[in-house]
Design brief:
CATH architecture: Beta Barrel
CATH topology: Porin
Radius of gyration: 22 Å
Number of helices: 5
Distance between the termini: 9 Å
Order of helices and strands: HHHEEEEEEEEHEEHEEEEE
Number of domains: 1
CATH class: Mainly Beta
Largest sheet: 14 strands, antiparallel, barrel
Shape: elongated
Strand content: over 45%
Length: 420
């Protein structure tokens, strides 16, 4: 059985390395709303409530709580994205669907192994975030754009982890985080005239970059019924997207924003766990994400050192989850997450390409543990469609009017957990 598990891990690790960042995510802005099937079923609340090996991707200190296990999972993700343009004097008016590519398949992989009673090692490979829009009817055609319009951002995180159990029920963990990301933009040719490098603005194929950051975490027990945890993940500055040096601020720079958070888990009775997380994502700290379009009219063209971005705000996220173990064989989960909206109403024009505006996430999940063989976990998530209506969002230079952007999401997933 152990040899078979290692073969599964090796094969799935190869799949995850190629594909885990290969689909569109857009939940907490463009970050995932949870990592691993168990957390996703419980609203994404996992900082203080680790339930499988992928919990180390949220809080590295969780490795001391997991034991020896591996988890492999897959999610089927279906976003519904689009835009409506009204009052534009240059011919852009209309309703546009960004759903030219759907659905997306997202695998993930986690592994934890205790080395002693106090030290544990782990590895998580998972898609961290991304965004895909594919407008077969190009919203910018009246400006002279041709072909399909859209962007495709993919990110994968690889997180080797070391965690140490200290005295008094406290644990600390650290993960050097390797991010590999790819990007492609198509069909936005008219805006290249406002770029410092028009030849590297759109339709340049897929480019990639990589970088390394760090995630640290703490997990503490307070009596038998209360756990608390916290994490911090540094800003990660990968290499530049050279093929899109004329699009992103800093000649193609696209960093992963810093994030931090804390959580609490309480077991009022032995079979029931209530968990809550707070998370902050510092999107505004990344120029290519946070800079507003108005930089263009202040003399900073696209691609310049402090050029325009998507105008995203930093956001706060709250997650609530419940897990009820009705028997040794069955566990049931439900959860809710509430995300801040990163897209201001004044910044919706460029965010036709990146409408990461959903706020509410409703989740359900369950785990069946058979007498032998791997445990099986399933979950479902639905984020009702949300529209951000533009307010002065299309500059007079582009014909005025407003762009409304919308996004809804549905996903289902399945994972297998192996005790080693």
């Amino acid at each position: 059985m152990r040899i078979r598990v290692y073969k599964v891990l090796a094969a799935f690790g190869g799949m995850a390395a190629m594909a885990a960042g290969g689909a569109a995510h857009a939940t907490d802005g463009y970050f995932l709303n949870g990592v691993g099937a168990k957390a996703k079923g419980a609203g994404g609340a996992q900082i203080a409530d680790p339930q499988d090996s992928l919990a180390i991707a949220a809080n590295p200190a969780s490795a001391t709580e997991i034991g020896a296990r591996a988890d492999v999972g897959v999610e089927l993700f279906v976003p519904d994205r689009g835009a409506t343009i009204l009052g534009n004097g240059a011919g852009l008016n209309g309703s546009y669907s960004g759903n030219g590519a759907n659905p997306f398949v997202l695998p993930d992989l986690g592994y934890v192994r205790p080395l002693s009673a106090t030290v544990s090692l782990g590895l998580a490979i998972n898609g961290n975030g991304g965004m895909n829009t594919t407008y077969r009817r190009n919203p910018f055609a009246a400006f002279g754009a041709s072909g399909t319009a859209g962007v495709d951002l993919k990110q994968i995180f690889v997180s080797p982890t070391l965690a140490v159990r200290l005295g008094g029920g406290q644990s600390l963990g650290v993960s050097p985080v390797v991010v590999v990301q790819t990007f492609r933009a198509t069909g936005i040719q008219p805006f290249a005239s406002a770029s410092a490098d028009p030849a590297h603005f759109t339709n340049q194929g897929t480019d990639w970059s990589a970088g390394v950051g760090v995630r640290v975490g703490w997990l503490g027990h307070f009596g038998h019924a209360v756990r608390a945890g916290a994490f911090y993940q540094s800003k990660i500055v990968p290499g530049r997207f050279d093929k899109y040096a004329g699009l992103f601020a800093g000649q193609g720079g696209f960093a992963v924003p810093a994030s931090w958070g804390f959580g609490l888990a309480v077991e009022p009775v032995a079979a029931l766990t209530l968990a809550a997380d707070f998370k902050r994502i510092e999107y505004a700290g990344v120029a290519s994400i946070g800079n507003p379009l108005s930089r263009l009219f202040a003399g900073q063209p696209f691609g310049s050192s402090d050029g325009p971005g998507f105008g995203w705000r930093s956001i706060s996220v709250v997650k609530l989850g419940v897990t009820y173990r009705s028997s040794p064989r069955w566990a049931w989960r439900a959860g809710y997450g509430r995300s801040g909206n990163p897209v201001p109403s004044s910044q919706t024009l460029l965010n036709i390409l990146a409408p990461g505006v959903v706020r509410d996430h409703f989740t359900l999940g369950a785990t069946w543990t058979p007498a032998s063989g791997p445990e099986i976990t399933a979950f479902a998530m639905h984020a009702p469609a949300r529209t951000v209506r533009g307010a002065g969002s299309i500059p007079a230079t582009f014909g005025g009017g407003d762009a409304d952007v919308r996004l809804g999401e549905t996903s289902v997933g399945l994972s297998f957990g192996f005790r080693l």
